[in-house]
Amino acid sequence: MKTLPLPKGFSAAGIAAGIKQGGGKDMALIVSDVPAVSAAVFTTNQIKAAPVNWDIQVVEHLGARAIVMNSGNANACTGSQGKNDVETTAVLTAAKLDVEPNEIFVCSTGTIGKPLPMDQITGGIETLFDHLSPQHANNAAEAMMTTDLAPKSLTTEINIRGKPVRITGLAKGSGMIEPNMATMLAFVLTDAAVEKHALQCALRFATDSSFNRITVDGDQSTNDSVIALANGLAGNELLTQDSEEWNLFFQTLEKMLFKLAMMIVKDGEGATKVVTIRVIGAASNGEADEAARAVANSMLNKTAWAGERPNWGRIMDAIGYSHAQVQEDKVDITYEAAPAVRGGMAFLETPEEELVNVVSQEAFTIHINLNLGGGEAVVYTCNCTEEYVRINVE
Amino acid sequence: MKTLPLPKGFSAAGIAAGIKQGGGKDMALIVSDVPAVSAAVFTTNQIKAAPVNWDIQVVEHLGARAIVMNSGNANACTGSQGKNDVETTAVLTAAKLDVEPNEIFVCSTGTIGKPLPMDQITGGIETLFDHLSPQHANNAAEAMMTTDLAPKSLTTEINIRGKPVRITGLAKGSGMIEPNMATMLAFVLTDAAVEKHALQCALRFATDSSFNRITVDGDQSTNDSVIALANGLAGNELLTQDSEEWNLFFQTLEKMLFKLAMMIVKDGEGATKVVTIRVIGAASNGEADEAARAVANSMLNKTAWAGERPNWGRIMDAIGYSHAQVQEDKVDITYEAAPAVRGGMAFLETPEEELVNVVSQEAFTIHINLNLGGGEAVVYTCNCTEEYVRINVE
């Protein structure tokens, strides 16, 4: 695997600390040489894992120095013990860097309800620091994986008034992905100098148009977190929302999160297809979103796509029971460019094979026009195969 | 198979009319010798099949004489052609009985978006009348099946002031079952004399506590209908909600619909377990219902049960993202009598094996106490196996 370049002043490590059953890398560390401006977006699940509650405080702090994470155990529903364990993890990591614990983000992903194995975590932190290197971002991405088939990372460079700025993204997530980022973690690292409020806005917007638009099984997790660190070592003039280069920076960030989100959908447990559901003509954007998610989360649709059958009746059914207002005889459905439904009925001039050809592709878009108003939304999902069930039964 | 006894004055038929691919019985007819009082509950899907829209008018009529149904084709999303086809079906059936078309209920279940094959329907109606007999209720139940593994029917007798009264129920449904009766049909036939308004109330209440409490895959269909016919031939004094025997009649009806609903859950596509989710202590009954359905519809829970793993973390996760108010440290979860979670955390005194034993049973109840208020709800669901996906992919 090609080494994933990190932005200036960042180093990373990923090691096997013995938390995951069956071995494999399960702890990662990302360190910035200097205090970084941070931003974060967290799960909206009412039940938040201990590390999420910790990180909600860390992001309020002005400078952050590191992210330490483990896979194999979510440290969720673990009460005061879980809270103590996060704190211990932060304290130990902070001590190695000679900084305050509230400069350390802590993330966990894995099984809910079991206490963190603190012997492994403690030993793991030691080992992580031994392996810390600007060359080890790949290892960190690998340690983030749970049921993921492949690590997910990207890096890109932009030029801000002659200063090269690098942005690197690492993500994990495959099953249990729904609105608001279920069981997914993403870390965005940049050497850009960015004003804190601007970074927070950018991360929120970019998350809403990427991770919050994908859905694998409609479940949301207790641990979802997107964390960004910007350490300013690129030496650019501080970026704010008023900067001339703000759009370039924001769009680069947005594009990166979108690509990472697509990697997650593609890696949906047992998934073999990426399906884009685009709804227009809804009474409002919110209703378009409701309709798109009803279609995207319907097991009957996800299994039909797995069988490479268009089955637009299941789409009509799903929008009909969604919370979006729907008028049957106004609905148009189009598979890529092939009209399937016009005025709520089969468009017979399109031969069935043409629709079958669309859903046989590895990626396709279904356009749904409710013809009621100007509301629009798009949601990205995947098909559901027997493999999904096999993975989750086990 | 034992002959299913019908109430006085009812006869039935079930035949293969050539609508279903691969043959098999696909049309049923139920006739009352005299006009019957009718009641009905229909799908809340905004997209209703043509027969549902027809039946909404039939139930307003004072006397009904027959139900004619087909499986293999839903006659949904079929526009004015679909509307005409229902009317033709009713007209042909009515002509055989020398009654008005608006005395005929028409039901369909099967694929959405294809026009009814009217040659088969027309021929089928002829054949159905040739086979009509008080002994043929089993055939009718069989003709209602789509992906059902077994026909679902029950009959029971009660005594109302010395008059024996019989109630017979026939149902179909397996996948795509959610709140509000998705892709399920049920017919309740009785020779009791019942006042129309009372019968409608009884059917609505009994449906809410039975068919509307089961969920297989969270999808709702365009065709769900529960129809009751009461022809009065038992000769009892007219039952009203003020009758002394009203409770006996209502509870018998309710028990029957509940048993039929359980037969449907048990027959959930690829399902091998019936799981009861009972939520108490919610802020309101509505919120209890939201929490229970979030758990019951979560693929992560349904697959965990298939794997016979308690995995209460997935329950915590589901109630956390439900629309019910939840406070993590107040949540108690109990598997049958075994405490699994107390105060939002693992109850360690219960050995894991005890929880595994519960979820290894063919039927079990999970009790969730949110400890926030007096709201309660119960939902019945099933596990999800690879077989479910296989069935729906095909």
What distinguishing features does this structure have?
homodimer; 394 residues; alpha+beta; L-amino peptidase D-ALA esterase/amidase; Ubiquitin-like (UB roll); 2 domains; eight-stranded mixed β-sheet; 11 helices; 27% strand
How are the SSEs ordered, and which strands pair?
The structure is a homodimer of 394-residue chains.
Chain A: E1 10-15, E2 27-42, H1 50-58, E3 64-73, H2 79-97, E4 104-111, H3 118-131, H4 137-143, E5 152-160, E6 163-172, E7 185-190, H5 196-208, E8 214-215, E9 225-230, H6 246-266, E10 274-282, H7 285-297, H8 299-306, H9 312-321, E11 332-335, E12 338-342, E13 345-346, H10 352-359, E14 363-369, E15 375-382, H11 386-393
Parallel strand pairs in A: 3-4, 7-9, 8-15, 10-14
Antiparallel strand pairs in A: 1-2, 2-3, 2-9, 5-6, 6-7, 10-15, 11-12, 11-14, 12-13
Report what the structure shows.
The structure is a homodimer of 394-residue chains. With 394 residues, the first copy, chain A, is of the alpha+beta class. Chain A has helices at residues 50-58, 79-97, 118-131, 137-143, 196-208, 246-266, 285-297, 299-306, 312-321, 352-359, 386-393; strands at 10-15, 27-42, 64-73, 104-111, 152-160, 163-172, 185-190, 214-215, 225-230, 274-282, 332-335, 338-342, 345-346, 363-369, 375-382. In chain A, the strands form 2 sheets. In chain A, strands 1, 2, 3, 4, 5, 6, 7 and 9 form an 8-stranded mixed β-sheet that branches. A 7-stranded mixed β-sheet of chain A has the order 8-15-10-14-11-12-13, sandwiched between helices. In chain A, helix 2 (79-97) links the parallel strand 3 (64-73) and strand 4. Chain A is globular and about 70 Å long. The interface between A and B is large, with 59 and 59 residues.
